[in-house]
Here is the input.
Amino acid sequence: MNYKIAVLNGDGIGPEIVDEAVKVLDRIGEKFGHKFEYTQGYLGGESIDKYGIPYSEETAKICKESDSILLGSVGGPKWDNVEPDKRPEKGLLAIRKELGVYTNLRPAVLFKQLKSASPLKDEIIGEGLDVMIVRELTGGIYFGPREYSDEKAVDTLPYTKGEIERITKKAFEIAKLRGKKITSVDKHNVLDTSKLWRKTVNELAKDYPEVEVSHMYVDNAAMQLIANPRQFDVILTDNMFGDILSDEASMLTGSLGMLPSASLGDGKVGLYEPSHGSAPDIAGQNIANPIATILSAAMMLRYAFNLTKEADAIEKAIEEVLQDGFRTVDIYTDGMKKVGTAEMGTEIANRI
Ligand SMILES: NC(=O)C1=CN([C@@H]2O[C@H](COP(=O)(O)OP(=O)(O)OC[C@H]3O[C@@H](n4cnc5c(N)ncnc54)[C@H](O)[C@@H]3O)[C@@H](O)[C@H]2O)C=CC1
Ligand SMILES: CC(C)CC(=O)C(=O)O
Ligand SMILES: [Mg+2]
Here is the structure.
């Protein structure tokens, strides 16, 4: 079958990691008889350079006419001084909002071969870690009304009941297919939005008696992720808390460069992007870890195209590459074979 994929490289390491995901998708296409057609769009800094704005109508059209979107990451020092509404990150927020992708799935899964790359002790890791962070993506403080002057700045954190309900339902549906356990993370002791969040989660919990629900304050959750990560199955949380906790959870898996994500809504087109940023400190050096982006492409096959065998093949190839000892520098440990971004992508593609 033919699948149309919009490809947005973004900035920093974006082009390098997206190239490797495309390499792997092409191999899947050859092996399983699919045709992936790519159309290049522009987001973030690269879009500012081309169109003067971080998200253009041209790119919006390409995305809406595609079956799915593969995205690198945006931002970097080059655009740090552009006016706030034109920053690269505003382009990312705009495309998420426009596509209505309110569910951000960030699976933190530790490949057993990377146990020694995780900073956690063996007894804490145990048999392994598999936490699904379900992050609300199109509401909350990143989108609330704001004001700024040299004397006062205001950000606001609005959530409607409807916004909380729809992400909570997604989390329950996901939990039903996994360990049947949700930890809803909030700041109920301080924030009114968290009060509404907790009340809504408890109301919906009645429709899912098979799923065990508990609540945790975000500050405690940040600590518990390190102290006892195996207690978590699905973490349901808001936009900013999910952003922060997912970077933290990524380290349990060895590196931020291992954490993929899928951003999904009720519409046809989802956004598949690594959880990390554009890593300007290592851009252009062929050292970035492409695995988060390649795993995001696997999530695309699974969620957007229903290509389960193909998604499994990517995940298995990654496991084999890790088993064979190949490591980018961020997950390197003594005795392993250090490889660059492109070599890692090739090793993965070769095992499909
Ligand atoms: N989704 C997106 O497009 C996001 C964009 N950003 C933007 O990215 C820029 C850099 O932000 P930072 O705070 O530095 O976060 P970052 O996630 O880009 O990097 C944090 C650290 O992790 C490392 N790292 C990230 N991805 C890696 C990979 N694949 N392989 C190996 N190491 C990796 C980086 O080298 C850096 O040391 C900023 O402009 C920020 O706004 C940040 C987060 C998400
Ligand atoms: C750059 C921000 C808009 C978002 C972010 O950090 C993320 O989605 O992980
Ligand atoms: Mg982030």
The two ends are 18 Å apart (CA to CA).
